[in-house]
Amino acid sequence: MNKYEAVIILNPNLSSKVDEFKKDFEKLLSDNSFKIIKTEDVGRRQLAYSITNHNKGHYILFNLEGDPSKLLEIETKIKYNESIIRHLFLVVKEHVAEDSSLLIESRNKKPEISSENDVSKKEVKIEAPKKELKEDKSDDAKEGTE
């Protein structure tokens, strides 16, 4: 049995149906003799680039063990699932027992500024452009002609 990590990015509009998706996906994995070691629901995150006109996605990470021959069947079945906008299966040597850095980062993320009042409290320093001083070369020119 090989060890895998699976990253699934779901359509962000379906965030309310994540539990339903996880149950269906876990059933698909168990039907194909895969064992789920760990599941992490990271939540909605900003994507690095737009995928099918979505700027955000709902991330779910799985640590799996299973038969490599069955992995192709799983990928074929999830390829046509419209709620999945991206998926990735990685082969790993060992599973990490700790939380993923993606999950830790999403937990520690500070809330964004939500009101205009917060923005107005920030100090803004504006400097006027400096004028260049022109040297009067007329005096130098007079000295050279004398």
Protein described:
This protein is an alpha+beta fold. It has one domain (2-104): Ribosomal protein S6/Translation elongation factor EF1B (Alpha-Beta Plaits). It is 32% helix and 33% strand. A four-stranded antiparallel beta sheet has the order 2-3-1-4. A hairpin with a 2-residue loop joins strand 2 and strand 3 (54-66). 10% of the residues are buried.
Explain briefly what this protein structure is:
The chain has five helices and four strands.
Provide the descriptors you would attach to this structure in a database record.
single chain; 146 residues; alpha+beta; Alpha-Beta Plaits; four-stranded antiparallel beta sheet
Secondary structure topology:
Blueprint: E1 2-10, H1 18-31, E2 35-51, E3 54-66, H2 68-79, E4 84-92, H3 101-108, H4 116-120, H5 138-145
Antiparallel strand pairs: 1-3, 1-4, 2-3
Q: Work out the helicity level.
A: 25-40%
Q: Could you state the CATH homologous superfamily?
A: Ribosomal protein S6/Translation elongation factor EF1B
Query: How many discrete domains?
Result: 1
Largest sheet strand order? 2-3-1-4
Seen as an oligomer or otherwise, the chain set is single chain
